[in-house]
Amino acid sequence: MSQHTTSASLLLLLVTASVLQHPVSTAQQADRVTGLIKENGWQVVQANCTVCHSAQIITQNSGSRAVWKSRIVWMQETQGLGELSSDAENTILDYLAMNYGQKENSRRAEIPAHLMPDNPYNN
């Protein structure tokens, strides 16, 4: 056996042993049906929110607690969502803000003005 093969085998053995010693995944577990992150409050969200729309609307969005609250108010004012109990609303808002919180701006930065071409309509 070559030294390279022996080193590669030893490395593979060490990595495998390390993985087996730390079996707990740091990734959040998602419900296999809805895709919602299985953290405190997810079942309240499922029971109240997926009655009218897919959980995908939740998982593809993000926002602060205030943003999620404004979406609930919008659904109540325009989409027929009824009043939620105070406990249910707080649980939903806590869950959404924690698991689908505001993301960093994902758009690229604007091109600096000095790098932009001249506007032919500005005469």
What is the gyration radius calculated from CA atoms? 24 Å
What structural class do helix, strand and pairing data support? mainly alpha
Strand content: under 5%
Could you please say which CATH topology of the domain at 29-104 applies here? Answer: Cytochrome Bc1 Complex, Chain D, domain 2
Helicity range of the residues?
A: 40-55%
Write the H/E string, N to C: HHHHH
CATH architecture of the domain at 29-104: Orthogonal Bundle
Mean pLDDT: 83
CATH class of the domain at 29-104: Mainly Alpha
For the secondary structure, the number of strands is 0
| Uncertain ranges | 13-26
Specify the biggest β-sheet: none
**What is the count of helical runs?**
5
**Spatial separation of the terminal alpha carbons:** 77 Å
Structure description:
The protein is mainly alpha-helical and 123 residues long. The chain has a domain at 29-104: Orthogonal Bundle (Cytochrome Bc1 Complex, Chain D, domain 2), CATH 1.10.760. 48% of the residues lie in helices and 0% in strands. It has helices at 3-21, 42-49, 56-59, 65-78, 86-99. Helix 2 packs across helix 5 (86-99). The protein is elongated.
From the structure above, extract its key features.
single chain; 123 residues; mainly alpha; Cytochrome Bc1 Complex, Chain D, domain 2; 5 helices; 0% strand
Question: What is this structure, in a nutshell?
Answer:
With 123 residues, the protein is mainly alpha-helical. The chain contains five helices and no strands. The protein has a domain at 29-104: Orthogonal Bundle (Cytochrome Bc1 Complex, Chain D, domain 2), CATH 1.10.760.
